Amino acid sequence: MSDEFDKLKTKQEISLKMKKLLMILTFCLCFSGVNAAGMVPDRNTNWGEKLALYLPNRLLDALDLFSVTLGVGPVAEVRLMGTRLVDIGAGFSASTYKLYKDHNRQYGIGVEEGWYWSFIVVGEEEYALREGSLLVDKYVECRAGVPTPEMRVYDYFDGPRDFWAIGGSLGFIIDAGVYLHPVEWVDFALGFFLVDIREDDLNFDSFDR
Fold first, then answer.
1. Higher pLDDT pick, 146 / 187
2. Which of 110, 121, 192, 197 lies at a 20 to 30 A Cα distance from 56?
């Protein structure tokens, strides 16, 4: 009986040590991944700069949480989107003028034209923003099939369209769209801890451009 108890105790001790080792390894891997992704400021971080611009950057991050567009012209559109992976709708536009408060801090006016249809992940699109003011990114998207985040228009840092957007658009002659940006919500929350996963916080060099 004593031998069985000792064996059981030994197994429990080994199991406990293994669990501790796994926890340590997991922590090290996670920390390494986070640091490699730039989520942990390095020794060269200018903390004075971050603190001086803390409030302006939190305000800008809050504005990034959503986008709104308003257009007028020969346009007809109905769309409901739960990221580009769940996109249902169709639309047509011929030189429609739009006002933008859009993804990746696009503010201004532009002219859109083209057509698209989508059912879940399957669809076709020939759509373009042909003209735009200074802060509006012009683009052309021609595709058939499933969109992917690797496409230039969905670039994580400076693409004109957000692959992960959730929302919808509706219009006939007058068109409006409202979208939320989940990645921006994460960036906004982490920003309070001076973590900038979108790499869009202002710094002193931003005012020299």
1. 187
2. 110
**Structural contact between residues 103 and 67, judged by C-beta atoms closer than 8 angstroms:** yes
Q: What is the mean pLDDT of residues 79-96?
A: 96
Judge whether residue 32 has pLDDT over 60: no
Which pair of tokens denotes residue 120? 């879940």
Query: Rounded CA gap, 132 and 118, in Å?
Result: 25
DSSP 12-74: HHHHHHHHHHHHHHHHHHHHHHHHHTT-S--TT--HHHHHHTHHHHHHHHHHTTEEEEEEEEE
More confident residue, 181 or 44: 181
Q: CA 28, 32, 60 angle in degrees (round to 5)?
A: 130
